[in-house]
Each structure stands twice: as structure tokens, then as C-alpha cells.
Amino acid sequence: MTVRTERDDHVVTITLDREPKLNALDHPTIDALLTALDRVEADDRVRAVVLTGAGHRAFSAGADIPSLAGSIAGGPERALREFVRRGHALTRRIEEFPKPVIVAVNGLAYGGGCEITEAAPLAIAAEHATFAKPEVSLGFPPPFGGSQRLPRHVGRKRGLEMILTGDPIPAVRAAEIGLVNSVVPADELLGAAHDLAGRIVRHAPTAVAACLRAVTRGINLSIDEGLAVEAACFAATVPTDGVRDGLRRFLER
């Protein structure tokens, strides 16, 4: 078992559990994480997800290199099929997940671990966490969406500095450039992530899902196209209990 899940009321914690391998992402681990997300989406009791890694050294060191090497040895088509498409499926699933995913970065987040952080809508880092894009040292660009998401989130020049050098940055710098929301002491990390989740799940799940959908779908569109997405997301909430209850509470104050 390389992925553990634990539910606490409306919040599920998913833990990458390959601590001796720094929670590296081999093919079975990616598949197990995708399966866990499928189950969480189908469970109406769950309203938010905290995603973290086992231990204190790493959230995830990224791709499992022996697994990657095996795929690459089979040539471009096999590498694309087994590795790149699998990684794209994971980061896109996290990015488009209808319930908020909060990454709790409990150590280094390199390669695929950094790309998961980029894809997630929210992230909190422990003070000792570090982030890096070391793929260039292996001879290829980031393959799980990092060449596209990171520059969009932090700016082209900041993104390219990380991508082209492979050098790690500390948690404080990650917060400065917008890669994570905040930095906390390591022993407060999961508590801070669950506190953030609690501040979200107090709101109607239909409203939360609509907010996530509006931002995720609209962020890379023109303003006019984005406003159309926003309007559609608003319209979808109009007939919901969340709107009826929210308006009633406001009017009865």
C-alpha cells in the first residue's frame, strides 16, 4: 500500500506512503493516488482533501527514477504512454478536482512533487520544505505539466529560473512567488491544512465546487471568455440549496 487515506468528518487526508523512497512516484503509486481521488469524489461525506507525504523528509521526491528509466528504455512511445500521460492524468485530476485539494508539503517537493503542488488549488509548506525542478539535470523538461503550470502561476522568468537551473528554493521563497499559500512550523503543518479545509467546508459544497470550476476553467482564458465561464458557474448554483440557505440566513440576520 503506497497511498493511505484517513477521513476526519468532512476532510480526507491522503498520504503518499513510500517514506524510504522519499515518497517517489512510481507507476503503481500514481495509479493508487488516482484511485483514491476517484473514491473521494464519489463520497458525498467528503468535502475537502489534504494531500501530504509520509515522514518529515519529503512530500515527494518526484518520479521514481528506476520506474522512469524502464519506460524511457522502451523508447518515446512507451515513455509517453507509461510515464507522461500518467503524470498528466494525475496533475490534471488534482487541478480539476471538484473538491478543494490542499497540499501539505512536509519536506522536499521535487519534480513530480512540485508539479502536484502547482496543480493543487491550495498548498501550505513546512518551514523546512524545499521545491525544485531537477528534470533538466536528467536531460528532459518537466513532464507532468510543470513547464506549463509553473510559469503561468509564478511568472515566466521566475518559472524558467527554476526549470533551467534545477536549483531548489526554500519554502519562504515559494510563498513569496505564490507557489504555496503560507509557511508554518513543521509540527503545525497538518493542523494548518485542516484549519484551512475547515474554513472552506463551512460553505455549501455546490458553492465551493462552482468557485473551483470558475477559477480553474477561466484562469487561462481571455477576460471575456472567463466572464462567460463565471456566469455559467453562477447560473448552475442558482437552483441549489446552498443559494437558498445562504440568502435565507442573510435576510434573517
Topology of this structure?
Elements: E1 3-8, E2 11-16, H1 27-42, E3 48-53, E4 58-60, H2 65-73, H3 76-95, E5 101-105, E6 108-110, H4 112-119, E7 122-126, E8 130-132, H5 135-138, H6 146-154, H7 156-165, E9 169-170, H8 171-176, E10 182-184, H9 189-201, H10 205-218, H11 223-237, H12 241-251
Parallel strand pairs: 2-3, 3-5, 4-6, 5-7, 6-8, 7-10
Antiparallel strand pairs: 1-2, 8-9
Helix pairs in contact: 1-3, 2-3, 3-4, 4-6, 6-7, 10-11
How would you describe what is shown here?
This protein is α/β, with parallel strands linked by helices. The protein folds into two domains: 3-201, 2-enoyl-CoA Hydratase, Chain A, domain 1, CATH 3.90.226; 205-251, Lyase 2-enoyl-coa Hydratase, Chain  A, domain 2, CATH 1.10.12. It contains twelve helices and ten strands. The protein has helices at 27-42, 65-73, 76-95, 112-119, 135-138, 146-154, 156-165, 171-176, 189-201, 205-218, 223-237, 241-251, and strands at 3-8, 11-16, 48-53, 58-60, 101-105, 108-110, 122-126, 130-132, 169-170, 182-184. The protein has a six-stranded mixed sheet with strand order 1-2-3-5-7-10, sandwiched between helices. Strand 2 (11-16), helix 1 (27-42) and strand 3 form a beta-alpha-beta unit. Helix 1 (27-42) runs parallel beside helix 3 and helix 6 (146-154) packs across helix 7 (156-165). 38% of the residues are buried. The model has no long low-confidence stretch (mean pLDDT 96).
